[in-house]
Amino acid sequence: MAASARSFHTRSTSFPSESHPNLAGVQECLHLVKACEACPSRKAQVVTKLGHLKDLYASMNAFLQLPLTQQALCGKERLVRELMDDFLCLMDACGLVKDSLAHMREEHQTLQSMLRRGVSGLESGICAYQCSRKRMKKDMAKCLRLLRNMEKHVSSSNDNLDMVDQVFNDVRAVTVSTFNTLSSVISGRKGTQSIFSRLVSSMSTRSDEDGISEIEKADAAIFRLHGTALKTVRQEDAREAQKLMEELDVSLSEVELELEDVFRCMIQAKVSLLNIVTGC
To answer: Bias category Polar residues: which stretches (predicted)?
Structure first.
């Protein structure tokens, strides 16, 4: 009887994908997330990747609901606890990104209101936005450090894994990669020049396929108004800034919605893992 139990335990942890469509579904979602790396548009890549990431966590949660999965993971308490810890870190990263996007939208709406209504204080509004962007960059730097540490952990855990372990490892890896992309986009392009000194020069008309994100374009338009009294703001510059902020608001709103869905699915998967730990 003991030998039979051990044999069952060994079989249950291997989970061949052809016998377990739920695991195959997780692997298919993993493939779709990874395929987004080849997407030429940074915006399309982020939005599409987040959509697939949401589906990935939903599929993984369904897999975690299987009695066979729960039985197998009862013998992998260390793996489950590591996954729970990693989910907490990833949810923290997701929260930082969501908060930064929401704050950026609020700042843009304030500036748009000033430009539309001719409210005084545009100069101070832009200065406040500059300070806000610096805080966002610090938050994203913190997020990137957190993700880099997780990336090292995932890379060091790649050897001698069975199929289930490898799938979970891949889930963590693609999540880290996705949030890395988002954090980098919010931070803006890297360089030795400050964002202000770089952006007060002539506006670039290159698209994000050429490496200029919508966030950078909006920043450029906003900072071109810096040092200009509201009455002397060129209408062309004001219209350009408003147009870019409005377009960016649509994009950020789309990303925020996808992030909310991802966050919710991550919570559900974490709860499933917690139930496995408490049920063992």
So the answer is: 10-20
pLDDT tens column, 82-122: 888 888 899 999 988 998 889 888 988 888 888 887 666 77
DSSP state of 19: G
For 7, 56, 88, 98, 203, the CA distances from 263, given in Å and listed in that order, are 37, 12, 11, 10, 36
- C-alpha count within 13 angstroms, C-beta hemisphere, residue 44: 10
For residue 10, being part of any structural domain is answered with no
Instruction: Say if residues 178 and 50 touch (Cβ distance below 8 Å).
Output: yes
Cβ atoms of 95 and 201 closer than 8 Å: no
CB 125 within 8 A of CB 111: yes
At 1, the amino acid letter reads M
The predicted structure's pLDDT at residue 56 = 95
Amino acid at 169: N
- Domain assignment present for residue 70? The answer is yes
Range of the domain at 69: 18-151+191-279
Per the CB < 8 A criterion, the answer to whether 262 and 94 are in contact is yes
For residues 211 and 188, give the distance between their C-alpha atoms in angstroms, rounded to a whole number: 10
Sequence-distant (6+) residues with CB within 8 A of 130 are: 196, 223, 226
Provide the whole-model pTM.
Answer: 0.77
In a domain, 142, yes or no: yes
Residue pair 181/144 in contact (Cβ under 8 Å)? The answer is no
Rounded Cα–Cα distance for residues 28 and 137 (Å): 34
- The DSSP 8-state label assigned to residue 66 in this structure reads S
Q: What is the pLDDT of residue 158?
A: 54
| Distance between CA atoms of residues 279 and 206, nearest Å | 55
Query: Could you tell me if residue 34 is inside a domain?
Result: yes
